[in-house]
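haha ok so turns out i had the wrong file open the whole time. this is the CORRECT one, sorry everyone. sequence first:
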Amino acid sequence: MKLIYNIGVYIADFHLKIIAIFSHKLKLGVDGRAQTFNILETSISKNDKTFWFHCASLGEYEQGLPVFKVLRDKYPLHKIVLTFFSPSGYEIRKNTDVADIVVYLPMDTKVNAKRFLNIVHPELTIFVKYDIWPNYLIELKKRNLRAILISALFRNNQSYFKPLGSMMRNALSAFEHIFVQNEDSKKLLKSINFNNVTVAGDTRFDRVSNQLKTDNKLTFIEEFKQDKQCIVVGSSWPEDEELLVNYINSNSSKNIKYIIAPHNIKQNQIQNLTSKLNVKTVLFTEKEGQNLSDYSVFIIDTIGILSKIYSYADIAYVGGAMGTTGLHNILEPAVFGVPIIIGKNHSKFPEAQQMIDFGGLKSIKNQDELNSELTSIIESASKRTQMGSLNKAFIDLNKGAIQKITNYLK
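then structure:
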């Protein structure tokens, strides 16, 4: 199994380099990995004390961030190395102040793992959620270097729990402790005799709760919204936008404001979205000099402010689940006590079903269901209040993961 895996990594690396010729996103990762060792070698000396944080992408970074911040504050003299595998994480957070060095993680070969750890020599390594790279972890284990996994989720169809999953099980054993999100994950780990497990929950609950402590004021959103009901569409994909555009165009007479923050903000995508709307629409990048109160739709063609915008929502639609790209963060609007609507494909996101069961979130399958649910929430102030309160309560009930993890690290 080890031989097959290691051959597969080299094959994958070769194909990524070929495909990257035709894909800008993949090219960013390929080019970035080519620079990693040079960056590390010029940034870290043998005498430096270091921590290594690894995240697959942006979502995992957001989950790990509260813990990273605690360690950053507690150990200011340590150099922190933050690695990403995906460009969607690295490109957005490459300038984060929680780390001293941010790089792409080189491919998971034995040679790369040894070279990486020779340079970084971390006192503590933290992996987030599920990005498990066997060669790196097995090398950590060989060197008796401390490592933990946080915000982990496991499912019984994963390789760890299958007869041929010995290599992956061995990789997991590199972690001295695993903090999982739920009891099911703990039971699965115990089934393979991994007992150093704590059900800590999801650190994202703590992170979004901290959003309430920040200044979320956006003057231009206040100018746009006025005293109208506002529906915020966050991280939308074309499958989401098709339904929402139809709803907006069919209900243009209603006294409602819409803010749409697409996941993809490339110019052609924004132009395509704007062209389909039959109501007065303004872009974030073109807002200067405009009387924003005159517009019905505000398209946010920038990044980094959606979490603040949710504070102005009366209703939120969170994208990603009408198609197969993956549901985006539903906790960010929930913390502000906002009722939420999502698409149908949310089975890999346990918090979505929990929030549905709790009563603050609705999942829709098609245009008719969107029309019915959205209209029902718009027209009932009591329903908005009830759903929003349930979402806020759900967040409050699930806080505390950071405290459990940091208590362990102490």
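The first strand starts at residue 50 and ends at 55.
again sry for the mixup
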